[in-house]
Write a structure and sequence with these properties.
Layout (H helix, E strand, L loop, with lengths): L2 H27 L44 H22 L10 H7 L13 H11 L5 H13 L9 H15 L8 H7 L4 E5 L10 E8 L6 E9 H5 L8 E6 L8 E5 L10 E10 L2 H8 L26 E7 L12 E3 L3 H10 L3 E4 L7 E4 L13 E12 L5 E12 L2 E2 L2 E2 L3 E2 L3 E2 L1 H4 L10 E8 L1 H13 L9 E3 L2 E5 L2 E3 L9 E2 L16
Parallel strand pairs: 8-18, 9-20, 11-18
Antiparallel strand pairs: 1-2, 2-5, 3-4, 3-6, 4-21, 6-7, 9-10, 11-12, 11-17, 12-15, 12-16, 13-14, 17-19
Helix pairs in contact: 1-2, 3-4, 4-6, 5-7
């Protein structure tokens, strides 16, 4: 907004205010007798000095001084006051960009928040938007913040905490507040941690009823930034029956991550699902100091013990010491699908070279991090026409060849995606949690020990099946993918020391970092 545009409402408003103030002043003080006796009611001049009754309207003065009083025009003054107040409100509204909520008191907005209208239940309402603005510029005092977050944590009759309606009405407010540095001892941290996360499990719309169902787990939370948790998934009916069963999946999650991708899990075949396929998530969270996370982003190692995934974090309570949070989601049962057999295809020289180029960026390292390694890959190259109708499931291994010729796998990653172009452009790629030996990988950046390093990429049938499920989830036709890449290529390992912000992993194994095994047992 230009300087003149920002001042224009106030200049015009000041001119209008001066006119209305003059009008009100004249109505209250302008009609004076000026030494001439007159009727106070109608203003008719008295003819004789001793006349006390008006011959026009019959008003009788109580004393000679009554005939000299200033007449007050209260209706005109009231009208002028209303116009002045209305003009001030409109000008203030115009200066605020036309937002009527700008004029409402803080506590009134908080009280009316449960009634905030939302557009089709998807867009944040005007009351929540105004409160979000005031939160961001620190207009609310401490008591008002406490009152607001008590309302957010409890929700209302139309929006229970964690539901879609709650997310629409209150989610933006939480995101505005948690973007600040919230420390473990702050009352807001406890309030946010009490809000159950939203657990989403995406399954293919169609899938063979007798095959294990590849699914994708995603989490949306409203906790302070820097919170991590362990999630266990079970069928809800098992808990209701009082039976104890091992979890379908158990995984660690942190809400401060470089890539917000879902995690791949395996569900039982559809013909083994309960009648009502509701999965309950048992969540045990712990709060990591946001200051340490910011230091980690800058590549500065925090003082403390390594967490379950090898990241250096300050002293934090174990997961078992935190209150258990429960959240549930009901799955849509896939329709039966007959899949054609996909034949193994070892590729040719051109496709093998294209696969080498996908992983050309190689291995990255960030200094002063306890888990500093990550591989880079460019799957835009997999959109090439030569990969049409091909399922790509890669086991990517970083191998150290010792001076005696022994080859040892030091890192193993699993990545999958459909080949070619998807219905909406490039297909999305997915990958699992890598296995690695961090101490050994340090030698890949040091040429003196005498060993040599290379990258080996192998096709894998189980990962190719995950790629087929990804076709369904992304709106493609899985039946056109009639082959999967079953070849194997190697390339020299390229290493790069990174200076950009470190890579923070979203998912981790609760029991610690896994190391590569002697034989490959894919764990998607």
């Amino acid at each position: 907004m230009s300087s003149w545009a920002s001042w224009e409402p106030w200049l015009i408003g000041g001119f209008i205010a001066l006119i209305l103030i003059g009008f009100i002043t004249r109505a209250m003080f302008g009609d004076r007798a000026r030494g001439q006796p007159r009727c106070f009611r109608c203003g008719h001049a008295f003819g004789r000095d001793d006349q006390m009754t008006c011959t026009e309207c019959g008003w009788t003065a109580r004393s000679p001084r009554d005939r000299l009083r200033t007449r007050r025009h209260w209706r005109k003054a009231l009208l002028g006051g209303v116009l002045l107040f209305s003009s001030a409100a409109l000008i203030r509204l115009q200066a605020a960009g036309g937002n009527p909520m700008f004029l409402a008191p803080d506590r009134l907005l908080i009280m009316l928040l449960p009634l905030d209208p939302t557009a089709d239940g998807t867009l944040q309402g005007p009351i929540a938007e105004e409160l979000r603005r005031r939160l961001m510029i620190d207009e609310l005092d401490e008591a008002e913040v406490d009152l607001l977050f008590d309302r957010i944590a409890t929700g209302d009759g139309w929006a229970t905490p964690g539901s879609d309606a709650w997310q629409t009405r209150y989610g933006g407010l939480v995101n505005a507040w948690r973007s600040r540095l919230v420390r473990p001892g702050d009352p807001e941290a406890a309030t946010l941690l009490s809000i159950p996360p939203r657990i989403d499990i995406e399954v293919p719309g169609e899938w063979p009823l007798d095959l294990t169902v590849p699914a994708e787990l995603d989490v949306e939370d409203w906790w302070p930034i820097g919170t991590e948790c362990v999630i266990e998934l079970r069928w809800k009916h098992a808990k209701d029956d009082g039976t104890s069963s091992p979890p379908i999946a158990r995984i660690g999650y942190r809400n401060r991550a470089s890539v917000g991708r879902p995690h791949s899990i395996q569900l039982p075949p559809v013909n083994q699902w309960p009648k009502k396929p509701t999965i309950e998530a048992t969540v045990r969270a712990r709060f990591v100091d946001a200051e340490a996370i910011l230091l980690a982003d800058a590549g500065i190692e925090a003082i403390g013990e390594p967490d379950q995934d090898g990241e250096m974090l300050p002293d934090v309570p174990p997961f078992a010491s935190m209150p258990v949070i429960r959240s549930s989601t009901t799955l849509l049962r896939p329709l039966d699908l007959v899949l054609p057999d996909a034949t193994a295809w070892t590729g040719d020289d051109a496709t093998n070279e294209a696969i080498r180029e996908i992983f050309a960026p190689g291995l990255r390292r960030w200094e002063k991090m306890s888990r500093p390694y990550a591989i880079r890959f460019d799957f835009r190259r997999a959109a090439d026409q030569r990969f049409e109708s091909t399922l790509l499931g890669f086991v990517v291994e970083i191998v150290e060849r010792m001076p005696d010729g022994t080859e040892l796998v030091r890192r193993r990653s699993r990545i999958w995606m459909p080949g070619g172009m998807g219905p909406n452009g490039n297909w999305r790629s997915r990958w699992g949690i890598s296995e690695e030996e961090a101490d050994a990988l340090a030698r890949a950046f040091d040429p003196t020990p005498g060993s040599s390093w290379f990258m080996r990429i192998r096709g894998d049938a189980r990962l190719a099946r995950l790629a087929r499920a990804s076709v369904v989830n992304q709106g493609g036709d899985p039946t056109v993918f009639n082959r999967w890449w079953a070849g194997e290529v190697t390339r020299p390992l390229r290493t790069t020391d990174e200076t950009r912000r470190p890579f923070i992993r979203r998912w981790f194994h609760p029991d610690g970092v896994r190391t590569p095994e002697a034989t490959d047992q894919p764990r998607p």
